[in-house]
Amino acid sequence: MSKKVENLLRDICFRIKVKGREVLKEFPITPAQFDLMQKLYFAGEQTMTELSRMLGIAKSTTTGLVSRLENEGFVERKRRKNDKRIIIVVLTKKGEYVIDKVIFKRIEFVEEVLKDFDNNSKEVLVSLLEKLNNSVKRRGG
């Protein structure tokens, strides 16, 4: 049962991700750069070390991603107000626009898929997903 649930969740998440990433064709952004931008969007400003840890990649790789995104105006580096020695990476309005557009595309796709469900089924689905999400969070996932 667990194997089936994991497989279904992975497949669903992958298909939604792919649909949303169709938007990236409009921008000079790689999937790796998008992942970095998405981390900033949801977690807020981060240091290079924090970003590297979140993404599970080397700091040198993170630096390259940030540099290219900064050159395109999607992120910027700033000094922390309380400690000028620390450089943070911040998503710009242009970067936020890209993430918002991808999320909107994902939501549109999910809405289209949910047309196959009656209202009761949608409510049951949401309830079960919330229960699953809470259980995952409790276990540190």
UniProtKB/TrEMBL annotation:
Ranges of residues in domain HTH marR-type: 1-134
Gene3D superfamilies to which the protein is assigned, alphabetical: Winged helix-like DNA-binding domain superfamily/Winged helix DNA-binding domain
Keywords: DNA-binding, Transcription, Transcription regulation
Domain of life: Bacteria
Pfam families: MarR (PF01047)
Molecular function per GO: DNA binding; DNA-binding transcription factor activity
SUPFAM superfamilies: Winged helix' DNA-binding domain (SSF46785)
Protein name from the UniProt record: Transcriptional regulator, TrmB
Upper lineage: Bacteria, Thermotogati, Thermotogota, Thermotogae, Thermotogales
